[in-house]
Amino acid sequence: MTQFIPQRLLVTGGAGFIGSNFVHYWTSHYPQTPLWVLDALTYAGNLNNIHTLIENHQISFIQGDINNPVLIHDLLNQHQIDTIIHFAAESHVDRSILGPGAFVNTNVLGTFNLLETFRQYWIGQGKPDHLRFLHISTDEVFGSLAPHEPSFSETTAYAPNSPYSASKAGSDHLVRSYFHTYGLPTLITNCSNNYGPYHFPEKLIPLMCVNILLGQTLPVYGDGLNVRDWLFVEDHCRAIDVVLHHAPAGETFNIGGNCEITNIDLITTLCRLMDELALNLPVAPSHRLITFVTDRPGHDRRYGMDTTKIKTQLGWLPSVSLEEGLRKTVSWYLNHSDWWMPLLSDDYRRYYHQVYGT
Ligand code: NAD
Ligand code: DAU
């Protein structure tokens, strides 16, 4: 197995959900590696996610846009970066339906700008093998599965259905083309739905946790029978670590929890855990808050990931069961209202009303 040892990391989107979890993971496992986070701090970016690491000088933070070529050029050269881990994106499907432009701008054009600036830097260094551009992508690029269809593998044809997944597919194709055309040492990972701490409360699991704690309705799209494959975010971080260290350049890997569940079963489980762990909920039992609402337009029915490749080639497996991961996540939201309460801003409320009505 090849081994690549990252020396100087640039993490884009490191103030977001998975990015910040990754930065915590990395600094606790590899405290010696210098690490810079580049993040535009959109509504989804939150310095509170990583402020202790910044204050303790374990990482450096730069506020900036991946669409800024001068900034990227300067960062790469000043800090002699050898590894980019690219999380930065617009990531929420419902927002991509309301306004797809930002998704094309960040996910397609931003990734292109990052790739192209990295390519020029790589050429300037004499095209060494020991650089990496690891692009973090999603299972949604493969489209939607019928109930009994086999899970997505790395060779499944792309069939994105939302502006979000189409923009991620576009970025994946660009990354792939930079390896095949120029030989730029890139890697792509496509992961299923993550959950855990620091998850912005527009996504299903944190939204349900916050609404249960506030005694607000739990909006279930359509019939609630759409299926997602959930992975605890720390397991995703470990998979990225393994891919970065051991995968040959040019490869793609699927990552998933082997843990498919319907939305309604997941929400019922969250209600059970909240009822068990929280004292004095405004409405109990909390499943009484479940409300079926109009479906998401173009809602993908089912995602499922075949993770045979990463398991057999790199030895990675998820380690946290859904019950254990949800318990940890529910406890985290229960104990961190100081983190999520300030996020329920006027902007958030406006967004909420646009998607859910009153
Ligand atoms: P997120 O929305 O929580 O975080 C995105 C981060 O990117 C934010 O900190 C935001 O400020 C930053 N950002 C946005 N536009 C930027 C720009 N133009 N320049 C610099 N920074 C910018 O997203 P997430 O859920 O943490 O997802 C991270 C990545 O993982 C995304 O690429 C997403 O497509 C992918 N992914 C997410 C999941 C999931 O379940 N959340 C699953 C698979 C893959
Ligand atoms: O599959 C990976 C993807 O998972 C990532 O690429 C995306 O960045 C991430 O946002 C996530 O996309 P989903 O659309 O699957 O996640 P979301 O949490 O928005 O919704 C999960 C499921 O729950 C989906 O079937 C829609 C449903 N849902 C969601 C919300 C917010 C509801 O029923 N009600 C809701 O209020």
General description of the model:
- With 358 residues, the chain is an alpha/beta fold.
- The chain has a domain at 9-198 and 231-257 and 304-319: Rossmann fold (3-Layer(aba) Sandwich).
- It has helices spanning 17-29, 51-55, 69-79, 93-98, 101-124, 163-182, 204-214, 233-246, 263-277, 308-314, 322-335, 337-340, 346-356, and strands spanning 9-12, 35-39, 60-63, 83-86, 132-138, 186-191, 193-195, 218-221, 227-232, 252-255, 260-262, 290-293.
- The strands form 3 sheets. A 7-stranded parallel β-sheet has the order 3-2-1-4-5-6-10, sandwiched between helices. A 3-stranded mixed β-sheet has the order 7-9-11. The protein has a two-stranded parallel sheet with strand order 8-12.
- α2 (51-55) links the parallel β2 and β3.
- The N and C termini lie far apart (55 Å).
- The protein binds nicotinamide-adenine-dinucleotide and 2'deoxy-thymidine-5'-diphospho-alpha-D-glucose.
- Residues 12-13, 15-19, 39-42, 44-45, 65-67, 87-91, 106, 110, 136-138, 168, 191, 193-194, 200 line the site of nicotinamide-adenine-dinucleotide.
- Sheet with most strands: 7 strands, parallel
Q: What percentage of the residues does DSSP assign to strands (E)?
A: 15-25%
How many strand elements? Answer: 12
Question: Structural class, from helix and strand content?
Answer: alpha/beta
Helical percent range? 40-55%
CATH architecture of the domain at 9-198 and 231-257 and 304-319: 3-Layer(aba) Sandwich
State Rg: 20 Å
Instruction: Please list the strands of the largest sheet in the order they lie side by side.
Output: 3-2-1-4-5-6-10
How many helix segments? Answer: 13
The hetero molecules present are: nicotinamide-adenine-dinucleotide, 2'deoxy-thymidine-5'-diphospho-alpha-D-glucose
Overall, the morphology is globular
Low-confidence stretches: none
